[in-house]
Specification:
Layout: H1 5-13, E1 14-17, E2 23-26, E3 29-32, H2 38-46, E4 57-60, H3 76-92, E5 95-97, H4 107-114, E6 122-125, E7 139-142, H5 145-154, E8 156-159, E9 163-170, H6 179-190, E10 198-203, H7 205-209, H8 212-220, E11 229-232, H9 236-242, H10 253-262, E12 273-278, E13 285-287, E14 295-297, H11 311-324, E15 339-342, H12 344-347, H13 350-360, E16 370-373, H14 378-386, H15 389-396, E17 398-400, E18 421-424, E19 440-443, H16 446-455, H17 461-464
Parallel strand pairs: 3-4, 3-6, 4-5, 6-7, 9-10, 9-12, 10-11, 15-16, 15-18, 16-17, 18-19
Antiparallel strand pairs: 1-2, 2-8, 13-14
Helix pairs in contact: 2-5, 6-8, 13-15, 13-16
Bound molecules: 3-isopropylmalic acid and iron/sulfur cluster.
Protein name: 3-isopropylmalate dehydratase large subunit
Organism: Haloferula helveola
Subunit structure: Heterodimer of LeuC and LeuD.
């Protein structure tokens, strides 16, 4: 009987069984950032412990870092977090991609970029979007602060095995339909809690055909579907992407590459569940509510509680619409926006800015809309600048910012004001997510954010930009 990638990685990293029955899992790579690590280091000090494998631990700063005047945060708390990370990295001998390194950025952008993220490995990070790294065929878990402590001290953590659901998307995506739409569509179908207890294996023609950056967008949101992690099996594209990156050992790379590929799920692997989706059914998708599973095609109408199938559904729709202040049963297209945010670990990579810039070129952001473009890392910023993308954004009326999480979570000065509505390429539309307790978020793909910025309202990018006829 064949094995899935999840099983192979799990088995090759299990180092013991604890008294309570849980598995002690070796963590190949530990990524840390400023928000969830300070207390973990504090606990380590209290226990008189050191970091077990400093060479397997990598730090970056992303959440609190401002996107203008980056090294001088006005907020004293942010300044403290910044210096705490510096001190912890120095004291424990951890590699830290700080602002001066030219490699700083959102942890889930930096890992793959540096070639730290590798197939067949286990990765942990005190951050729920760690699933992003699964795009490389790694099993990557978001963990809490006490687990960060455990991993720092022992390079292992205690876990129960997951079930594996294979999500197969076959066929060809229609023009104007992006990886973000695929992931929003999956979450819409299976629910924000549908993946609880599962690892998601994304398979089929659509994922085979995706670039590594597109695969990252999909895996990034596995957690928004409730899954503990998500992955795509490694293939030649994975190998090509990683070849020559700073942390990839290039001695006998061929052997490394074939080891990586050997982790891919066997053809006769057995799954706990299989879901099949037709690529042709996926449309540009946007959210209308306060959970990532509140998604609809841009051509659809905002749900009406009156037509809900169950009392629970009715209550959910009512709560979401009361918060979003959107009229039930009316088209989502045309809902006015105040802010356009292009960035985050979901969609803040070179290909996201390239694709949005392709359509923004020569166009202007609608009057009254504040639009910001925030590269996911300093390297992404540099790549964009080399291609002149920053100029295209600026000429269109976007502000071009420095790298960080920015308005995705607004633990920095980039925040919504009052009940502003934001067209956002990020991954969460929870109440108050973007920094204002009454702020409203509509999730969508980068090109849809560009279309919304230009129209000043939720728009179908296929119409605004005539995507079907635009040359790739
Ligand atoms: C601050 C951090 C712990 C948090 C997470 O775990 O994901 C953040 O990155 C988010 O996206 O909400
Ligand atoms: S960009 Fe957003 S989702 Fe990603 S790590 Fe930062 S706050 Fe979390």
């Amino acid at each position: 009987m064949g094995k899935s990638l999840y099983q192979k990685v799990w088995e090759s990293h299990s180092v013991g069984t604890l008294a309570d029955g849980r598995t002690q899992l070796f963590i190949g790579t530990h990524l840390i950032h400023e928000v969830t690590s300070p207390q973990a280091f504090g606990m380590l000090r209290d226990l008189g412990l050191s970091v077990k494998y400093p060479k397997r631990t990598f730090a970056t700063i992303d959440h609190i870092v401002p996107t203008v005047n980056q090294d001088a945060p006005a907020d004293p708390l942010a300044a403290d977090m910044m210096s705490a990370l510096r001190q912890n990295a120095d004291e424990f001998g951890i590699t830290y991609f700080d602002l001066a390194s030219g490699k700083q950025g959102i942890v889930h952008v930096v890992g793959p970029e540096q070639g730290i993220t590798q197939p067949g490995t286990t990765i942990a990070c005190g951050d729920s979007h760690t699933a992003t790294h699964g795009a490389f065929g790694a099993i990557a878990f978001g963990i809490g602060t006490t687990q960060v402590r455990d991993v720092l001290a022992t390079q292992t953590m205690a876990m129960e095995p997951l079930k594996v659901r294979r999500i197969e998307v076959n066929g060809t995506l229609r023009p104007g339909v992006y990886a973000k739409d695929v992931t929003l569509h999956i979450i819409r179908l299976l629910g924000a809690k549908g993946g609880i207890g599962y690892a998601y294996e994304y398979a089929g023609e659509v994922f085979d055909n995706m670039t590594m950056e597109e695969r990252m967008t999909v895996c990034n949101m596995a957690i928004e579907g409730g899954a503990r992690c998500g992955y795509v099996n490694p293939d030649q594209k994975t190998v090509d992407y990683l070849k020559g990156r700073p942390y990839v050992d290039m001695d006998d790379f061929e052997a490394t590459a074939s080891r990586w590929l050997s982790f891919a799920s066997d053809a006769d692997a057995v799954y706990d569940d299989i879901v099949k989706i037709d690529a042709a059914d996926i449309e540009p998708t946007v959210t209308w509510g306060i959970s990532p599973d509140h998604g609809i095609a841009v051509s659809e109408s905002i749900p009406d509680p009156a037509t809900a199938e169950t009392p629970e559904q009715k209550a959910t729709i009512e709560e979401a619409l009361a918060y979003m202040k959107l009229p039930a049963g009316t088209p989502i297209k045309g809902v006015k926006i105040d802010v356009a945010f292009l960035g985050s670990c979901t969609n803040g990579r070179l290909s996201d800015f390239r694709e949005a810039a392709r359509f923004l070129k020569g166009r202007k952001v609608a009057e009254g809309v504040k639009a910001i473009a925030v590269p996911g890392s300093q390297i992404v910023a540099h790549q964009c600048q080399q291609e002149g993308l920053d100029k295209i954004f600026e000429e269109a009326g976007f502000e071009w910012r420095g790298a960080g999480c920015s308005m995705c979570l607004a633990m920095n000065p980039d925040k919504l004001v009052g009940d502003q509505i934001c067209a956002s390429s990020s991954n969460r539309n929870f109440k108050g997510r973007q920094g204002s307790p009454t702020g409203r978020t509509i999730l969508m793909s980068p090109v849809m954010v560009a279309a919304a910025a230009v129209e000043g309202a939720v728009a179908d990018a296929r119409e605004v930009f005539d995507i079907a006829h635009a040359a790739a």
